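User: Hi! I'm working on a homework problem where we have to compare a predicted structure to a textbook description. Could you give me the structure for the chain below?
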Amino acid sequence: MTESFGWFADAPLSGQTFAPPPPLAARPLFAVASAAAFGGLSLVEPRPLGSGARAAYRITTAALTGAYTAAILPAGTTAGMPARYMGGPRGQFVPLCSIGRGSAALAAGGLMLGLADPLEALDARITGWLTEHGVRNPRWWMAGVGVAVVAAGWAADRAELRSLQSSHEEARQALENTDENLGLADPAMTAVLDALLQPGVTGVEALRVQLDSVQQRDAEAGFMTDAYLAVGEETPRIAPRTQVWPVKARFQRGEAAFEIELQIHEGRLESLAIMLAEEPSSPGSEVDQDEAINSLTAWPAVEELDLVTETADPLT
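Assistant: Happy to help. Predicted structure tokens:
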């Protein structure tokens, strides 16, 4: 489940799943303290400060910004990029590196120090404009605006958090409601899944343990190009917990080239899907996507499959 990124949202920056906010940032006391801190800092006029006082002002601003960033950053946040830029499918996100709170705090604080001169120049222009327009005590006005912005942002993200939690709970309940529809997995689908779990790929041992207990949702409905899976709760998981399995299978039916993709969620086998391959099977081929997909009536035999493994380059 992906959501818009916010102070308390861990996506799409981290990709796929909801993450609760840090306990400190979720408390009303944090909102009051941070609003008061930023508001109090806005009362300081940096222009008349001497070199020592100005250095202290800048260091304080950077430290406060870094501490605030660390407090609001959800644990386990990762940075990445859309998978389509790395030869992967659209709609997926590829995590590249983990963002620690310490490194985020240093980056935010360093950015404030690096932008100190232009920010102070902007501060001076705003103060001058307010004074020219008859505003008395412009620093108090600026402090009030700072407090209001921090408080409003915290309140908005609390509302976003409640919405995310509600959506997460609804999705969890919907998943639980489908558990009663679990049945024996289609043997042909299981054979394809077994073929995708190639030796040497990180996490394959755990997935093979899961394969022993795999079941299929709505199995009685017959063949579908999307098979949703469930495995035993006690089976080992893999990391990254949410990913597209790097081994895919391709097969041909007439002029249409198909690709089978395995999705991992929460470290477990989640779904197996057949889709048209991104590349046409031959130059000038005009394949109707809906017609091609609807023409499939069963999972392909393992002998038909051409297994491909993703590397740093597109599929090879």
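For your comparison, note the following. The first helix runs from residue 23 to 26. Residues 185-309 form one domain. Good luck with the assignment!
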